[in-house]
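Request: Not sure, any thoughts?
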Amino acid sequence: MKSGSAYDSSCYLCPGNTRTSGLKNPDYEHAHVFQNDFPSLAEDSYDPVHPDAPYAVRSSEGICEVIVYSPHHSQRLSTMGEDDLGHVVTSWVEVYERLGARSEVEYVMIFENRGAVMGNSQLHPHGQVYAYSSIPDLMVRGQLQAFKKGNFVQEALAAEIADGRRVVYENDSLCAFVPYAAWLPYDITMVPRRPIGSLVEATTEEREHLVTGLKRILTGLDSLFGRPYQYSMALIQVPTDGQDRTFHMQIHISSLLRGAEVRKHVVGTDIFGRSVNPSDPNVSAAEIRMAIDRSSEL
């Protein structure tokens, strides 16, 4: 259901408005993609400075883009209709394929930060794309090492389905669950049942099922604390560096929230030692399932 103002004259993402760069947004009707006016990565290649010290050095070469999900200023992925969500998924596919085809791009990261707790105060629904010139370290490199021993994602999926306690949603094409050793209290991992490397490989039916799953899960998360959920979401897909490798894509949804008014503070041992999750993944999954059930009754 739509709520709030459809247009904000001061919003740099609304149709027809002028951005800080001086460029004017078109009167778009669905998802709209443009180059980030303040990119964290530099599109022009350059040689990094090599200091006279034992430091590893790499270029910040890459491309940053913005995906605006809807012309409606007050929408969220959770409040959009499935047809409009379908346009968002299509834009994810097109952006990944277009940027991944560039020879200098080795990894395309599509993500969204939603809410002030997650560092975003821009209400207009949007996500971002970082097209890296090298494979990022934090999650992807570790997964690539694990995939050398087999499809650990498929094995985890089978284990979660067999156990059942942490599964929060499933349909014919995907399953979503709270990981066995979740890093944050309400982590969710969405996994296609078929081992595909990216959404480019997904069939029309699988993309439709993804839309349905995203809608159910995000609407349920809004119901979890009775207010719009704040989260980070990322599509973890196969690198685009031209290497032939095993990979099974996932979509991760994480939040620093522990409750409606309580957030997880990533400090101390979380930074310097080992991250501590103050919740029980089995309990978190049960809470999310109940929230999804509540939202489906509305």
